[in-house]
Amino acid sequence: MEYTIEKLQQILVTAKAEISKVIIGQGDTVDKALVAVITRNHALIEGVPGVAKTLLVRTLARVLGCDFGRIQFTPDLMPADIIGTNIFNMKNNEFNLIKGPVFTTFLLADEINRAPAKTQSALLQAMQERCVTIDCETHQLPDNFTVFATQNPLEYEGTYPLPEAQKDRFMLKITMSCLDKEEEVLLAHRTLGADAPESVLDAGAVKAVISSAELAGLRGALRGIVVRDELIEYAVKIIRTTRSDDSTLVGAGPRATQALILAARAYAAIQARDFVSPDDIKLMAEPVLCLRVILRPEYEIEGLSVSEVVTRILQGISVPR
User: Does the N-terminal or the C-terminal CB of the chain have fewer CB atoms within 10 Å?
Assistant: First the structure.
């Protein structure tokens, strides 16, 4: 079924309320995760251990009525451990497919940078085409298949950097930080009682606000969000400037343009508006571009970050009125 903008916004408000029963604070993180889901894209979640990255994805799956699967990436993980393999059944004298954990709706790729590029590449076809090929036979994944990959930004020993092709499959990077003092005090109090975040989720107190089958109709309502031509040109100019900036070795490609426009439109819906503002584009620019812009080595040595480059680019481009 198709939803109206008003119904879409109502469902998003209800979904955020259900998520808040488990996830304390992290409002911006939740918004960006919902952006990835309602635009049918994937997200890379970066944060130190213990900030509820896994719990967030489990909660999202519960609230949106989707199946949840998890893969713990390790150096010895093989592609077949992800997508599955054909095993010969001697009783039936035929090969049977043993499906891997990729056959789910919401997939948590935990610590994705712990596995080498060969293993990471097993997700490329799944993320781009929502299907996997096993022994020359293609198998479809659920239409709402979404990958949430996590990585630790501080610990690099024993890790493998994500290839650019892998990073480009993600719509945006979500950075999860530690809680504010008041939020952490609340977490401590809840931990001592029956309403600890994990307990609330496991007890079934979090309800689904929509089914997986209804997500397609929910996305259709996004077409009712107005994006002015001037804002489209503004987004394109931001992306193209990353390719000519002196500090960048590789700028963002056309997929970044698509990601930025779609993310801004979805964020406007989450903020209960039926139009995209320049602030939506500016807010989504950093998480979209941080995955795609590569700085020149001499600027990295000086300590310049992609985030700082994006901020400078945004400051140098006139904002449409």
Answer: C
Closest by alpha carbon to 24, among 76, 59, 67? 59
Are 313 and 195 in a shared domain?
no
Q: Is 146 left (phi over 0), alpha (psi -120 to 50) or beta?
A: beta
DSSP state of 212: G
The Cα–Cα gap between 10 and 17 comes to 11
CB 284 within 8 A of CB 264: yes
- CB within 8 Å of 70: residues ≥ 6 apart: 54, 101, 107, 108, 110
Q: What are phi and psi of 175, to 5 degrees?
A: -100, 120
Structure-block tokens of residue 103: 């056959």
Place of tokens 């001037």: 230
Percent of the chain with pLDDT over 90: 35
Q: Residue 116's closest CA among 69, 169, 74, 70?
A: 74
pLDDT at 44: 94
Question: In this structure, are 40 and 142 located in the same domain?
Answer: yes
**What count of Cα atoms within 13 Å lies in the side-chain half-sphere of residue 307?**
6
AA letter at 23: I
By C-alpha distance, which of 299, 93, 312, 284 is closest to 171?
A: 284
Boundary residue ending a domain (196, 221, 246): 221
pLDDT in tens, 107-126: 999 999 888 888 888 888 89
